[in-house]
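Reviewers of the previous submission asked for a worked example of the structure-prediction workflow described in the proposal, so we include one complete record here. The input consisted solely of the amino acid sequence. No template or homolog information was supplied to the procedure at any stage.
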Amino acid sequence: MSAALLLQLQRAEDRVTTLQGEMASVEEQIAGDPLLEQARIEAQRRLDEQTEADGAVNDLDREVTSMRARARSLEKQLYGGSVRNPQDLLTMQRELDVLVRQLGEVEDRELQLMEQAEEASSLTRSAAEQVATLEKHRAEEAAPLAKRLESVGAALVEAQKAREEIHARVPANELRLYERVGARRHPAVVQIVDGACGGCRLPLGLNEVRNARVGPGLVQCANCDRILAP
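From that input alone, the workflow returned the following structure tokens.
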């Protein structure tokens, strides 16, 4: 009878362990979604790239605006009649020629940067859409997960209560033996199956089988030390 009670205790403890693992798994799912977190990181990276690209376009646009203003100023001086000195006019014409050439190069570079900025903007939108999709999916899963957590939590409380009730009925000396064996073997208590130990599967002697079934005390397998239950 004591072995049967220990077997009940072991099953109750296994039930508690299983529910604790299930509860931890559900809590982990509620706590975070690796795919969503990765998508958020990617979206932030794309946004940073877009911000950098937009900043580069703005910087170059200011440079182009400044160069165009200088070019207009030179043209006004060259063709407005305010400057008459030939040497000054020649110097301004050379500066204007250089400025026009540089302006063309800068405008070409600005166009390339604008294309890169547009591509970065497109990638940012795609990344944001991915985050939104995953967040929607996450929200749809949240309610069932919370309900599952509540259900598992209630079952765990009941399982722990049942374990404690059985634990209180086991004699102290038998409980110590059970804990000693359980520290080295799991399961610590096994049933006899066709005259063999349910743990190591080795055949048992007739006396071991008889004592385990009708004897007053606990019987252990001579090979693996597990407690035998009928």
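Residues 173-229 form one domain. We consider this example representative of the routine output the project will generate in years two and three.
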